[in-house]
Design goal:
Number of strands: 10
Number of helices: 14
Order of helices and strands: HHHHHHHEEEHEHEEEEEEHHHHH
Radius of gyration: 23 Å
Length: 367
């Protein structure tokens, strides 16, 4: 453990970003940007904003004030920075650079634990962030309020292993349905999504293309039963059937329909898959709650609820930075072999950010 004694927890967390291995075109963009920012290079920008997000700073003024800390100055190799300059940089930063860093970290995350249809699910959903119409006039939503929407595909293996795999940011007025086709792009994977995304023709296309999925059926769905299977031993499984959905206008291919009763006595119906048990289908859909927890976490603990910028580009850049921070935390978890969830690791990191990494290591590594 001697090799960690001189490395701060922040620098160890940040170290998975390898600037030398970014695509040449991205390195050129960084080099060109740094020519005009000699005292505040791109690496300064990235470190300062990732610090602000991970440390849950509520504003750029708070990030500005934080530089009274000698530890922060030493870690950032920067004596001070004004909130006005931070605002300009966030609104002007080329988002292609940030997307390239996200892609690099995502590739690392995927390589640590290769995803198969047996060990992981892709949870697909969106979350809306309501905003003030005066400050965010470009963010179309409703007549009385503005808003943006984060469309997300979360790779979920278990409650300890999950990370953002793909995402898009749009105005809140845009419908979720437009984004499912973009996110469903890996055959043999299993996608979990809510009934708001359901389109019968699309489900048939997904089935034909080799995608697995579990989704809820709408209450008013027309269901035609082809076969009823033996009842499951699980008390909450009410029915297990092969069905087709739709009307004479359009009937789907045969799908699996599992009907369960939840803890509150409510009946829920799910379609697909045939190669697992009815209880596994129910458990897969139950895992969808994890994406709701992820949205709650980034809103409450990663400063997305309090946006740093009023510009469209600045808002988008902040969300990309939040996703980069999330991947950095997940990679730290995997590399240390910690049994703690990424949420728990983030809380520890916040309090030990400038301490030697070995102090965080002791709390993360299983004994």
């Amino acid at each position: 453990m001697d090799k960690y004694k001189t490395i701060s927890a922040f620098n160890k967390w940040f170290s998975n970003i390898n600037f030398k291995k970014l695509p040449f075109s991205i390195r050129e963009k960084i080099s060109q940007a740094d020519k005009y920012h000699k005292k505040f290079a791109f690496e300064h920008f990235l470190k300062v904003f990732l610090y602000g997000i991970d440390h849950e700073c509520e504003s750029l003024r708070e990030m500005d004030t934080a530089f009274v800390s000698p530890d922060l100055q030493q870690t950032m190799a920067l004596d001070a920075i004004s909130h006005s300059q931070l605002s300009r940089e966030l609104a002007q930063m080329d988002d292609e650079i940030l997307w390239a860093i996200f892609a690099q970290l995502l590739e690392k995350a995927r390589s640590k634990i290769p995803v198969t249809k047996r060990n992981a699910l892709y949870l697909v959903d969106s979350s809306t962030f309501s905003l003030n119409t005066t400050r965010y006039p470009w963010a179309d939503f409703r007549s009385t309020k503005a808003g943006i929407k984060l469309h997300l595909k979360l790779c979920f293996m278990d409650k300890e292993h999950f990370y953002p795999d793909q995402f898009e940011v749009t105005n809140a007025v845009e419908h979720d349905d437009n984004h499912l086709e973009v996110f469903v792009n890996q055959p043999e994977a299993t996608y979990i999504f809510d009934r708001g995304y359901i389109d019968y023709e699309r489900l048939d296309e997904m089935e034909a293309d080799g995608y697995f999925f579990v989704t809820r059926v709408k209450k008013n769905a027309k269901v035609h039963v082809l076969e009823t299977y033996e009842p499951s031993q699980s008390k909450n499984i009410l029915r297990d059937q092969m069905v087709v959905l739709g009307t004479q206008v359009y009937l789907t291919s045969p799908f699996r329909l599992v009907t369960i009763q939840d803890e509150k006595g409510k009946q829920l119906r799910f379609v697909n898959r045939f190669d697992v048990t009815a209880q596994e289908v129910a458990d897969m859909y139950k895992a969808r709650w994890q994406i709701e927890l992820f949205f709650k976490h980034i809103k409450q603990h990663m400063t997305i609820k309090k946006l740093f910028s009023h510009s469209e580009k600045g808002v988008s850049n902040q969300i990309i930075l939040a996703m980069i921070a999330s991947l950095l935390t997940y990679l730290l978890k995997v590399e240390t072999g910690s049994k703690k969830s990424p949420f728990q690791i983030k809380r520890l990191l916040k309090h030990l950010l400038f301490q030697p990494f070995e102090e965080l290591w002791v709390l993360l590594v299983p004994t």
